[in-house]
Amino acid sequence: MPALPNSPVVKLALVGVSRDCFPIELTRLRMKRLVAACREAGLKIAPCKTIIQSDTDAVTALAEAAGAGANAAVVYLGNFGPEGPLSIFAQRFPGPVMACAAAEETGGDLIASRGDAFCGLLNASYNFGLRRMRVYIPPAPVALPEQLASRIGEFVTIARILIGIATLKIFSFGPRPQDFYACNAPIQPLYELGVEVMENSELDLLALFQAVGEKEPAVQKTVREMKAELGAGNRYPDLLPKLARFEVALKRFADVNLGSRSFGVFANKCWPAFEKAFGFTPCYVNSRLAGRGVPVACEVDIYGAVSEYLCQLASDGPATLLDINNTVPADMIGKADLKGAAPGDLFMGFHCGNTFSGCMKNFELKYQLIMNRLMEDGREADITRGTLEGQIRPGPVTFFRLQGSADAKLLSYVAEGEMLDMDPQSFGGIGVVAIPGFQRFYRHVLIGRQFPHHSAVAFAKCGRPLFEAVKMLGLTDIGTPLPSGNLYAGESAFQ
Q1: Which of 304, 308, 403, 483 is the most exposed place for a label (fewest CB within 10 A)?
Q2: What angle do CA 204, 205, 207 make, to 5 degrees?
Q3: Do the strands 478-479 and 410-419 form a parallel or antiparallel pair, or are they unpaired?
Q4: What is the number of H-type helices and E-type strands within the chain?
Q5: Strand-pair category, 196-200 with 454-458
Q6: What is the DSSP string of 166-226?
Q7: Are 233 and 364 spatial neighbours (Cβ–Cβ below 8 Å)?
Q8: d(Cα 301, Cα 368) in Å, to the nearest integer?
Q9: Tell me: the pLDDT tens digits for 271-290?
Q10: DSSP secondary-structure letter at 53?
Q11: At 68, is the secondary structure helix, strand, or coil?
């Protein structure tokens, strides 16, 4: 089960296949062993009784999987397998599909019980190509049951990402800002992924906010929750009713407007007009919604919202959106443990205050310094209050971005690292990040492929499922940090 609401629950069907010139009992026996290994690993699976040998069997197995409520499936070659019928099953199944195969168990039984699935998976993959299908085939896909159970567990995460994005709706409020052209990326490629986008105006958002009364029970309940969450960090108790009204307004809007979609996220305009109309910054509310499984991307960053959501699905926990923001001065580093990174591979991940409190080392409700300079001339903060500021908690992180390029192509990057336990000595929701090889990655992937300043952040190392999921979505341009000596495209060999 996912840790957060607004995320799909993967229900996995397992179907065995057998070529008619091999003993079907071999697949039946190996299926029993694989089912037992999966259950021992804590995986909830629905094994199909039908072993696929023919097209008719494929149709019967599809009905079994549908009856079990499965939204993802694993095709298991217990022997060589019939590539046509098993591909028909995969092609007609309405969700992500993985294929794997049985390794031989013992050298003492390679006549009656040799299944040749190593060979059969080659034919199956060729048939997937003939049908232009994307089927997930893991590393080392031919293995014993205990090994395959681990790979099936990884597929559950990949499937959760694919199901989530295929049934996602993005609600945006406000025009994408002029000074952040990266947030104006073409959204047509998102429709190709199945994502629905509902764009609205800032006036729509203001009307929704104004329609929520301060005395409503839902607002009062939210105020109590905010007080409990903030504790000693509640510097502006008078502001909480306004923030609570805004949170209630967003939640109600999502509930009413999901329509044909199952899951929803936001990409909202948050400055500079917002503060003058609403009287606060929305950052703390954004952080709370992210902690409840509904990421809210800043500055109408539609691709940022999708990227945050995929990080949530990959990590099974809240995600955030941070600027890849500023360098780390040498006098801050000293003898700190850089987790395998060089000093030049450090940077600060920052945003105004949108990171969930559960992902912070310390936090308090504050005001946005940059906005205060712009809108209030540095005077005592009023309309620029509402950020959740402090040091982001140390631990493993994954930085990720799915982006529409200027020519409406999808590209992505994935990089794993650590949020260091180092005082950033600055403002906002901020932390010092170490990613080995980041300096070259920054120049040749982030700048070289023209990615924007926003990055989605998962609070776990989940690069593998994110990489495999975007590859399943059809992306071929996926940047990752390369070790020293491996050149990026366009990188000079003359250093």
Answers
A1: 483
A2: 65
A3: parallel
A4: 16, 18
A5: unpaired
A6: HTEEEEEESPPPTT-GGGG---HHHHHTT-EEEEE-HHHHHHHHHTS-TTSHHHHHHHHHH
A7: yes
A8: 19
A9: 999 999 999 999 999 999 99
A10: -
A11: coil
Phi-psi region of 340 (alpha: psi -120 to 50; beta: other; left: phi over 0): left
Domains, in order of start, for the chain: 12-165 (3.40.50.10940), 167-479 (no CATH)
pLDDT of residue 113: 83
Helices (H), 350-475: 369-376, 438-441, 463-472
Is it the case that residue 3 has pLDDT exceeding 80?
no
pLDDT given for residue 182 in this prediction: 66
pLDDT band at 388 (very low <50, low <70, confident <90, very high): very high
Which of helix, strand or coil describes residue 403? strand
Cα separation, 414 vs 401, whole angstroms: 7
| Cα separation, 9 vs 160, whole angstroms | 7
Q: Please, are residues 399 and 321 in contact by the beta-carbon 8 Å criterion?
A: no
Residue 78 tokens read as 């217990």
The two structure tokens encoding residue 15: 């179907």
Alpha helices, DSSP H, located in 49-114: 55-67, 83-92
- 2 has pLDDT over 50: no
Return the amino acid letter for 330.
A
- Burial bucket for residue 130 (CB in 10 Å: 0-12, 13-18, 19+): exposed
Which has the closest alpha carbon to 463: 479, 448, 450? 479
Predicted confidence (pLDDT) per residue in 70-88, tens digit = 999 999 999 999 999 999 9
d(CA 19, CA 233): 65
| CA separation for the pair 37, 126 (Å, rounded) | 28
At 260, the amino acid letter reads S
